[in-house]
Each structure stands twice: as C-alpha cells, then as structure tokens.
Amino acid sequence: MPLPPVAINYLNHPQLPPTVASKQLLAAVGQSQLIQTWEKLFAIYDIHIGQMLLTRADIEDRERFLNARDTLHALLDNRIIPVINENDAVATAEIKVGDNDNLSALMAILVQADRLENRKQWLFTAPSAGVLTIDEGAQSAVLIQHKSLLPAGIVSVSGRFSRGEVVRIRNAQGKDIALGMPRYNSDALELIKGKQSQDIEQQLGYEYGAVAIHRDDMIVL
C-alpha cells in the first residue's frame, strides 16, 4: 500500500513507524481529504456525490455483495455520483482488490454489467440453505408470468439462511419449482410471509425492496 501523499501533507509529514497500521492511518486521513476535494469540484456543477469504500471481501461474501449492490443502485437511482475506492484503511493483503483495473471489474459486476447467465449458472451449483413454500398464485407468477416472488405468496419458511444464500422455492404439492437468492434472511421472511409488500418496513423496521426474491436472482427448475 503506497503512502498517501494527501494525508502526509495534511498531517505535516508526521514521523510514523513503518507498520501496516501507520499506512492504514494515513489512508483513513487521506480518504476524508480526497472526498472533500471531490465534493467541492462536483458542487461547482451542482452534482451530489456519495463515497463507497470496498474490499474484496465485500464482493466475495454474498450478503455484503448484495448490500453493496443495493447501495450503488440507490445512489444511481437518485442521480448521485458514486465515488468508489478501495478501503485501504482496513484492507490487508488477503482482502485487497489490487489495482484500479481490478476495482473497475468488480464494479462492473456490482452494476450487473456481467452476464445474467453466469449468475443463474451459479444458482444451479450452489448448495441450498432453506426452502420457501409458496401458494398457487405465487407459483403462477413465477412459472407463467415470469415475475419476482413477493412476500405475500410465501406460505412457510424452512431452514436458517442469510440474505443472498440460495433457497429452494417449493409449491403447495411439495415440488421444487425454482431456486433463488432472497433479499431477506430467514428470520425476516418468517415475519413478512403472507404480508403485502407495503407492510414490510412496518413489520421489520427496514426494507430491502418490495420483493422476497427478484426475478433476476431466480432460476426455474
């Protein structure tokens, strides 16, 4: 990790021991200085920005990946320019992204510039962590209308799983009809099953969107 010159100048060339912690200290200071500079420059054109600091672990862990993806989409949907950097203040060699080319490639995945088929192929090979049993209306929506699965169509939740883990979608007759990555974990889905989407925030105190499993995160068997 190179020493951030912005931080060195801001701190008036401090005498620090040559340790990883010292480099991360300078990275933390430098990041705050750089984002202030970006804010001033974009403000000239009346453009808002938001900072995202990532490590490789944020991409490789499914739940953290989904959180980062949702944040990025929310920024873009609200016409806020994301300023994305590696989080050098916490990154170690094991979780560093590396150079800007690597970071750009990972950002392309976050904004779904990767092929949808690759994600669906992953759904086929990943082990399932639970089962969502759905009613006939939801089955029709998934199989015939090719729609997302809403909480209202979920009858029961089996297993314990995190947001983004693969689950099986099962019909009332006990047949697995699809695989998908839910936007909510098993505890949350237990609370919102059978509920209307507009009631999610009232039930949970937060919401990750109106659907339990988005169509893009699902594959029919």
UniProtKB/TrEMBL annotation:
Domain PUA: 130-213
GO biological process, any: amino acid biosynthetic process
GO molecular function: ATP binding; glutamate 5-kinase activity; RNA binding
GO cellular component annotations of the record: cytosol
Domain of life: Bacteria
Key words, A-Z: Amino-acid biosynthesis, ATP-binding, Cytoplasm, Kinase, Nucleotide-binding, Proline biosynthesis, Transferase
SMART domains membership: PUA
Stated name of the protein: Glutamate 5-kinase
Xref: Pfam families: AA_kinase, PUA
Stored SUPFAM superfamilies: Carbamate kinase-like, PUA domain-like
InterPro entries hit by this protein: AceGlu_kinase-like_sf, Asp/Glu/Uridylate_kinase, Glu/AcGlu_kinase, Glu_5kinase, PUA, PUA-like_sf, PUA_sf
